[in-house]
């Protein structure tokens, strides 16, 4: 009878403690995942002749619920009014920006920053194709985490935010 009571006492104490430690370990792991998702990101958007869709793309970016991001539009030598629409919609001003990396790319013509949205940038460059435009974006991105989109992509408002449903 004593052995049974000791066994029940042991199991009654051991299993709850075991579960508490497992829950603490799980919560710590979830905290790490959420901290990773809250890190600053750079969104790169190569643009080539996107005058018909670029305004919608900008409006979609402005609805994103994420606190710490920059967005770099890379105008890859468009021969339509893509750059003019970016200038008009974002109220761009010419800036100097330091390269963070040194991938070989076609020549950069100008770098702009939005007066209205200081986390939005435009790089105007000679045409070199999508991969060259992305390399330019990587060269000037200040964050370690990079998201690339096509200019006709529209993100959901909370797509970059940590969400308990994703875990």
Write up this protein.
This protein has four helices and six strands; from the N terminus they run αβαβαβββαβ. It is elongated and about 90 Å long. With 167 residues, it is an alpha/beta fold.
Describe this protein with a few key phrases.
single chain, 4 helices, 6 strands, alpha/beta, 167 residues, elongated, six-stranded mixed sheet
What is the CA-based Rg, rounded?
Answer: 24 Å
Strand order of the largest sheet: 3-4-5-2-1-6
* Helix count from the secondary structure assignment: 4
Mean pLDDT: 85
- How would a textbook summarize the main sheet? 6 strands, mixed
How many individual β-strands?
6
N-end to C-end Cα span: 46 Å
H/E element order: HEHEHEEEHE
Strand composition percent = 15-25%
Low-confidence stretches: none
Based on Cα principal axes, name the global outline.
Answer: elongated
Classify the secondary structure makeup into a structural class.
alpha/beta
Binned, the helix content reads 25-40%
Brief sketch in words of this structure:
This protein has 167 residues and is α/β, with parallel strands linked by helices. It is built from 4 helices and 6 strands. The model has no long low-confidence stretch (mean pLDDT 85).
